[in-house]
Amino acid sequence: MNVISYRPGPDELSYTFGGRAAVGSVKPGTIVELFTEDCFGGRVRGVGDLPSQVCEFPYLNPVTGPFHVDGAEPGDTLALHFVSIEPARDWAVSTTFPHFGALTATHTTAMLHPPLDEVVWMYEVDRERRTVRYRARRGDFSVEMPLDPMHGTVGVAPAASEARMTITPDAHGGNMDTPELRAGVTVYLGVNVEGALFSIGDGHCRQGHGEVCGTAVEAAMNTVVAVELIKGVATPWPRMEDDGHLMSTGSARPLEDAYRISQHDLVTWTASLTGLDELDAYQLVSQGGEAPVGNVCDTNYTMVAKLPKAYLGAPDPYEFAHTRLRGLGREYLSSR
Protein backbone atom coordinates (compact mmCIF):
# COMPACT_ATOMS: atom_id res chain seq x y z
CA MET A 1 0.00 0.00 0.00
CA ASN A 2 1.36 3.39 -1.02
CA VAL A 3 0.85 5.86 1.87
CA ILE A 4 2.14 9.44 2.01
CA SER A 5 1.78 11.98 4.81
CA TYR A 6 1.77 15.76 4.57
CA ARG A 7 1.49 18.37 7.31
CA PRO A 8 1.78 21.92 5.97
CA GLY A 9 3.49 24.70 7.85
CA PRO A 10 1.65 28.03 8.23
CA ASP A 11 3.42 29.42 5.15
CA GLU A 12 2.48 26.37 3.06
CA LEU A 13 -1.30 26.74 3.33
CA SER A 14 -3.21 27.75 0.22
CA TYR A 15 -6.10 30.19 -0.07
CA THR A 16 -7.13 29.58 -3.68
CA PHE A 17 -8.01 26.78 -6.02
CA GLY A 18 -5.75 27.30 -9.01
CA GLY A 19 -2.89 29.76 -9.31
CA ARG A 20 -0.56 27.77 -7.07
CA ALA A 21 2.12 25.14 -7.70
CA ALA A 22 1.58 21.62 -6.34
CA VAL A 23 3.04 20.78 -2.93
CA GLY A 24 3.57 17.18 -4.05
CA SER A 25 2.53 14.45 -6.46
CA VAL A 26 0.46 11.35 -5.81
CA LYS A 27 -0.26 8.31 -7.94
CA PRO A 28 -3.75 6.87 -8.29
CA GLY A 29 -4.25 4.23 -5.61
CA THR A 30 -2.38 6.24 -3.00
CA ILE A 31 -3.53 6.83 0.57
CA VAL A 32 -2.84 10.41 1.67
CA GLU A 33 -2.67 11.39 5.36
CA LEU A 34 -3.28 15.13 5.79
CA PHE A 35 -3.42 17.78 8.47
CA THR A 36 -5.83 20.61 7.69
CA GLU A 37 -5.98 23.85 9.66
CA ASP A 38 -9.29 25.40 10.71
CA CYS A 39 -10.88 28.23 8.74
CA PHE A 40 -9.22 30.83 10.97
CA GLY A 41 -5.75 29.37 10.54
CA GLY A 42 -5.70 28.37 14.23
CA ARG A 43 -5.63 32.01 15.33
CA VAL A 44 -8.97 32.06 17.17
CA ARG A 45 -8.26 30.22 20.43
CA GLY A 46 -10.55 31.94 22.93
CA VAL A 47 -13.68 34.07 23.14
CA GLY A 48 -11.54 37.21 23.18
CA ASP A 49 -9.90 36.39 19.84
CA LEU A 50 -12.22 38.22 17.45
CA PRO A 51 -11.45 37.11 13.88
CA SER A 52 -11.52 40.72 12.66
CA GLN A 53 -8.62 41.41 15.00
CA VAL A 54 -6.51 38.23 14.85
CA CYS A 55 -7.08 37.19 11.20
CA GLU A 56 -6.15 38.95 7.99
CA PHE A 57 -8.46 39.02 4.99
CA PRO A 58 -8.24 37.31 2.48
CA TYR A 59 -6.17 34.74 4.41
CA LEU A 60 -9.15 32.80 5.70
CA ASN A 61 -10.36 29.28 4.97
CA PRO A 62 -6.93 27.74 4.22
CA VAL A 63 -6.66 24.43 2.42
CA THR A 64 -3.95 21.78 2.38
CA GLY A 65 -2.53 21.22 -1.10
CA PRO A 66 -2.72 21.33 -4.01
CA PHE A 67 -1.62 17.82 -4.94
CA HIS A 68 -0.73 16.82 -8.48
CA VAL A 69 -2.30 13.48 -9.45
CA ASP A 70 -0.12 11.62 -11.92
CA GLY A 71 -1.87 11.03 -15.23
CA ALA A 72 -4.82 13.33 -14.58
CA GLU A 73 -5.94 15.29 -17.65
CA PRO A 74 -8.91 17.49 -18.53
CA GLY A 75 -11.90 15.29 -19.20
CA ASP A 76 -10.98 12.77 -16.49
CA THR A 77 -12.62 12.43 -13.07
CA LEU A 78 -10.76 12.47 -9.76
CA ALA A 79 -12.20 10.27 -7.01
CA LEU A 80 -11.34 11.09 -3.39
CA HIS A 81 -12.59 8.66 -0.76
CA PHE A 82 -12.60 10.05 2.79
CA VAL A 83 -11.31 7.16 4.88
CA SER A 84 -11.30 9.09 8.17
CA ILE A 85 -11.78 12.65 9.41
CA GLU A 86 -10.77 13.23 13.02
CA PRO A 87 -10.43 16.44 15.07
CA ALA A 88 -6.79 17.34 15.69
CA ARG A 89 -7.50 19.33 18.90
CA ASP A 90 -9.77 19.11 21.92
CA TRP A 91 -11.39 22.42 21.09
CA ALA A 92 -13.21 24.01 18.17
CA VAL A 93 -14.68 27.43 17.48
CA SER A 94 -17.64 29.17 15.88
CA THR A 95 -18.51 32.83 15.39
CA THR A 96 -20.97 35.37 14.14
CA PHE A 97 -19.72 38.13 11.85
CA PRO A 98 -21.15 41.61 11.32
CA HIS A 99 -21.68 41.12 7.56
CA PHE A 100 -21.59 37.36 6.97
CA GLY A 101 -24.23 34.67 7.39
CA ALA A 102 -27.78 33.98 6.29
CA LEU A 103 -29.58 36.22 8.83
CA THR A 104 -27.67 39.48 8.57
CA ALA A 105 -27.03 42.23 6.06
CA THR A 106 -24.17 41.43 3.66
CA HIS A 107 -22.36 43.27 0.90
CA THR A 108 -24.94 41.92 -1.57
CA THR A 109 -27.95 42.34 0.74
CA ALA A 110 -27.73 45.95 1.84
CA MET A 111 -29.77 46.96 4.90
CA LEU A 112 -29.95 50.06 7.08
CA HIS A 113 -30.14 48.20 10.39
CA PRO A 114 -26.97 47.72 12.46
CA PRO A 115 -24.81 44.66 11.69
CA LEU A 116 -24.75 41.65 13.99
CA ASP A 117 -22.24 41.55 16.84
CA GLU A 118 -18.99 39.70 16.31
CA VAL A 119 -19.09 36.92 18.92
CA VAL A 120 -16.94 33.81 19.44
CA TRP A 121 -18.13 30.48 20.86
CA MET A 122 -15.62 27.85 22.00
CA TYR A 123 -16.59 24.18 21.82
CA GLU A 124 -15.10 21.36 23.90
CA VAL A 125 -14.35 18.35 21.71
CA ASP A 126 -14.47 14.92 23.37
CA ARG A 127 -13.05 12.50 20.81
CA GLU A 128 -13.54 9.44 23.02
CA ARG A 129 -17.21 10.14 23.77
CA ARG A 130 -17.72 11.53 20.23
CA THR A 131 -19.36 14.75 21.39
CA VAL A 132 -18.95 18.51 21.22
CA ARG A 133 -20.28 20.82 23.93
CA TYR A 134 -22.11 24.04 23.11
CA ARG A 135 -22.14 26.77 25.78
CA ALA A 136 -24.25 29.91 25.45
CA ARG A 137 -22.30 33.17 25.67
CA ARG A 138 -25.15 35.19 27.15
CA GLY A 139 -26.60 32.69 29.60
CA ASP A 140 -25.78 29.47 31.46
CA PHE A 141 -27.30 27.06 28.93
CA SER A 142 -25.12 24.14 27.77
CA VAL A 143 -25.75 21.02 25.72
CA GLU A 144 -23.77 18.17 24.18
CA MET A 145 -24.16 17.33 20.49
CA PRO A 146 -22.84 14.35 18.55
CA LEU A 147 -19.46 14.70 16.87
CA ASP A 148 -19.99 14.40 13.10
CA PRO A 149 -16.71 15.42 11.40
CA MET A 150 -16.79 16.63 7.81
CA HIS A 151 -14.88 18.83 5.39
CA GLY A 152 -16.48 22.01 4.14
CA THR A 153 -13.96 22.59 1.36
CA VAL A 154 -12.61 20.20 -1.26
CA GLY A 155 -11.89 20.83 -4.91
CA VAL A 156 -9.57 20.92 -7.88
CA ALA A 157 -8.08 23.75 -9.92
CA PRO A 158 -10.62 25.47 -12.18
CA ALA A 159 -10.21 25.55 -15.94
CA ALA A 160 -8.66 28.29 -18.10
CA SER A 161 -5.88 29.18 -15.61
CA GLU A 162 -8.47 30.67 -13.27
CA ALA A 163 -7.80 31.06 -9.54
CA ARG A 164 -10.79 31.08 -7.18
CA MET A 165 -10.84 31.96 -3.49
CA THR A 166 -11.33 28.87 -1.37
CA ILE A 167 -14.52 30.33 0.10
CA THR A 168 -16.30 30.19 -3.27
CA PRO A 169 -17.99 26.93 -4.34
CA ASP A 170 -18.54 26.25 -8.03
CA ALA A 171 -18.16 23.47 -10.59
CA HIS A 172 -14.58 22.84 -9.42
CA GLY A 173 -15.75 22.13 -5.86
CA GLY A 174 -14.62 24.64 -3.25
CA ASN A 175 -16.44 25.68 -0.09
CA MET A 176 -19.60 23.62 -0.56
CA ASP A 177 -20.09 23.17 3.21
CA THR A 178 -22.34 20.13 2.97
CA PRO A 179 -22.55 17.90 6.07
CA GLU A 180 -22.83 14.97 3.62
CA LEU A 181 -19.05 15.16 3.07
CA ARG A 182 -18.05 12.93 5.98
CA ALA A 183 -15.89 9.82 6.38
CA GLY A 184 -17.06 6.95 4.19
CA VAL A 185 -18.00 9.24 1.30
CA THR A 186 -16.35 9.33 -2.12
CA VAL A 187 -16.24 12.70 -3.90
CA TYR A 188 -16.02 12.85 -7.69
CA LEU A 189 -14.48 15.98 -9.23
CA GLY A 190 -14.08 16.78 -12.90
CA VAL A 191 -10.44 17.40 -13.85
CA ASN A 192 -9.82 20.78 -15.52
CA VAL A 193 -6.02 21.01 -15.69
CA GLU A 194 -3.14 18.57 -15.93
CA GLY A 195 -2.64 16.89 -12.56
CA ALA A 196 -6.09 17.96 -11.24
CA LEU A 197 -4.43 19.86 -8.32
CA PHE A 198 -6.78 18.93 -5.49
CA SER A 199 -6.87 20.55 -2.06
CA ILE A 200 -8.83 19.89 1.14
CA GLY A 201 -9.63 22.05 4.18
CA ASP A 202 -12.26 23.70 6.37
CA GLY A 203 -12.85 20.85 8.81
CA HIS A 204 -16.04 20.93 10.88
CA CYS A 205 -16.72 18.88 14.01
CA ARG A 206 -20.36 19.21 13.02
CA GLN A 207 -22.55 21.60 11.06
CA GLY A 208 -26.25 22.19 10.65
CA HIS A 209 -27.64 22.23 7.13
CA GLY A 210 -27.14 25.63 5.55
CA GLU A 211 -24.35 26.74 7.94
CA VAL A 212 -26.83 29.47 8.74
CA CYS A 213 -24.64 31.76 10.92
CA GLY A 214 -21.77 31.49 8.41
CA THR A 215 -19.52 29.20 10.45
CA ALA A 216 -19.76 25.61 11.68
CA VAL A 217 -17.95 24.05 14.66
CA GLU A 218 -14.63 24.88 12.99
CA ALA A 219 -11.68 22.60 13.72
CA ALA A 220 -8.29 21.44 12.54
CA MET A 221 -8.46 17.87 11.25
CA ASN A 222 -6.31 14.82 10.70
CA THR A 223 -7.77 13.37 7.54
CA VAL A 224 -7.04 10.31 5.41
CA VAL A 225 -8.12 10.11 1.76
CA ALA A 226 -7.74 7.43 -0.88
CA VAL A 227 -7.10 8.73 -4.40
CA GLU A 228 -8.21 7.23 -7.71
CA LEU A 229 -8.43 8.51 -11.27
CA ILE A 230 -11.17 7.57 -13.74
CA LYS A 231 -9.79 8.18 -17.21
CA GLY A 232 -11.89 9.58 -20.03
CA VAL A 233 -14.99 10.15 -17.91
CA ALA A 234 -16.07 13.75 -17.35
CA THR A 235 -17.98 15.04 -14.30
CA PRO A 236 -19.79 18.36 -14.78
CA TRP A 237 -20.40 19.17 -11.09
CA PRO A 238 -19.01 17.63 -7.90
CA ARG A 239 -20.75 14.38 -7.05
CA MET A 240 -20.68 12.19 -3.96
CA GLU A 241 -21.39 8.57 -3.19
CA ASP A 242 -21.76 6.70 0.08
CA ASP A 243 -22.79 3.10 0.67
CA GLY A 244 -26.46 3.91 0.25
CA HIS A 245 -26.79 7.04 -1.88
CA LEU A 246 -25.73 8.98 -4.94
CA MET A 247 -25.49 12.76 -4.54
CA SER A 248 -25.06 15.68 -6.93
CA THR A 249 -24.16 19.22 -5.95
CA GLY A 250 -24.92 22.61 -7.43
CA SER A 251 -23.47 25.96 -6.40
CA ALA A 252 -24.82 29.32 -7.57
CA ARG A 253 -26.87 32.34 -6.64
CA PRO A 254 -29.84 32.52 -6.25
CA LEU A 255 -30.49 29.40 -4.19
CA GLU A 256 -33.07 28.17 -6.72
CA ASP A 257 -30.37 27.88 -9.37
CA ALA A 258 -28.11 25.90 -7.03
CA TYR A 259 -31.10 23.60 -6.44
CA ARG A 260 -31.77 23.28 -10.17
CA ILE A 261 -28.14 22.49 -10.98
CA SER A 262 -27.99 19.71 -8.38
CA GLN A 263 -31.33 18.21 -9.44
CA HIS A 264 -30.49 18.42 -13.14
CA ASP A 265 -27.20 16.65 -12.56
CA LEU A 266 -28.82 13.90 -10.50
CA VAL A 267 -31.57 13.37 -13.09
CA THR A 268 -29.14 13.11 -16.01
CA TRP A 269 -26.75 10.95 -13.97
CA THR A 270 -29.64 8.64 -13.04
CA ALA A 271 -30.68 8.37 -16.69
CA SER A 272 -27.14 7.50 -17.79
CA LEU A 273 -26.74 4.83 -15.09
CA THR A 274 -30.10 3.12 -15.62
CA GLY A 275 -30.81 3.67 -19.31
CA LEU A 276 -34.06 5.37 -18.37
CA ASP A 277 -35.59 8.02 -20.57
CA GLU A 278 -34.75 11.42 -19.11
CA LEU A 279 -38.37 12.15 -18.17
CA ASP A 280 -38.63 8.76 -16.47
CA ALA A 281 -35.46 9.58 -14.51
CA TYR A 282 -36.95 12.99 -13.69
CA GLN A 283 -40.04 11.30 -12.26
CA LEU A 284 -37.96 8.83 -10.22
CA VAL A 285 -35.76 11.54 -8.69
CA SER A 286 -38.82 13.71 -8.03
CA GLN A 287 -40.45 11.02 -5.90
CA GLY A 288 -37.41 9.32 -4.33
CA GLY A 289 -34.94 12.14 -3.85
CA GLU A 290 -33.89 14.37 -0.99
CA ALA A 291 -32.42 17.87 -1.11
CA PRO A 292 -30.02 18.60 1.78
CA VAL A 293 -28.82 22.20 1.93
CA GLY A 294 -25.08 22.81 1.86
CA ASN A 295 -24.47 26.50 2.54
CA VAL A 296 -26.61 29.63 2.27
CA CYS A 297 -23.94 32.11 3.33
CA ASP A 298 -20.98 31.94 0.90
CA THR A 299 -20.33 33.85 -2.31
CA ASN A 300 -22.28 31.05 -4.01
CA TYR A 301 -24.88 28.88 -2.29
CA THR A 302 -24.78 25.07 -2.42
CA MET A 303 -27.54 22.48 -2.70
CA VAL A 304 -27.27 18.69 -2.74
CA ALA A 305 -29.59 16.28 -4.57
CA LYS A 306 -29.57 12.82 -2.98
CA LEU A 307 -31.10 9.52 -4.13
CA PRO A 308 -30.96 6.03 -2.53
CA LYS A 309 -29.03 3.60 -4.72
CA ALA A 310 -31.64 0.97 -3.88
CA TYR A 311 -34.00 2.74 -6.30
CA LEU A 312 -31.53 2.29 -9.15
CA GLY A 313 -31.11 -1.47 -9.12
CA ALA A 314 -27.38 -2.21 -9.15
CA PRO A 315 -25.76 0.97 -10.48
CA ASP A 316 -22.03 0.98 -11.27
CA PRO A 317 -21.09 4.68 -11.06
CA TYR A 318 -17.52 5.34 -12.09
CA GLU A 319 -16.82 1.63 -12.56
CA PHE A 320 -17.50 0.88 -8.87
CA ALA A 321 -14.80 3.35 -7.74
CA HIS A 322 -16.49 3.87 -4.37
CA THR A 323 -16.49 0.14 -3.63
CA ARG A 324 -12.82 -0.21 -4.56
CA LEU A 325 -11.75 2.83 -2.56
CA ARG A 326 -13.81 1.80 0.44
CA GLY A 327 -11.95 -1.52 0.38
CA LEU A 328 -8.61 0.27 0.16
CA GLY A 329 -9.61 2.43 3.10
CA ARG A 330 -10.56 -0.57 5.19
CA GLU A 331 -7.25 -2.21 4.38
CA TYR A 332 -5.46 0.95 5.50
CA LEU A 333 -7.41 1.13 8.77
CA SER A 334 -6.86 -2.53 9.57
CA SER A 335 -3.11 -2.07 9.12
CA ARG A 336 -2.98 0.73 11.73
What do these coordinates show?
By secondary structure, the protein is α+β, with helices and mostly antiparallel strands. The protein has a single domain (2-314, 321-335), classed as Sandwich (Jelly Rolls). Helices cover 15% and strands 33% of the residues. It contains four helices and 19 strands. The strands form four sheets. The protein has an eight-stranded mixed sheet with strand order 1-4-16-6-14-17-18-19. A hairpin with a 3-residue loop joins strand 17 (239-241) and strand 18 (245-252). Helix 2 packs across helix 3 (278-288). The longest helix is centred in the last third of the chain and has 20 residues, at 255-274.
Short recap of the structure:
This protein has 336 residues and is of the alpha+beta class. Helices cover 15% and strands 33% of the residues. It is globular.
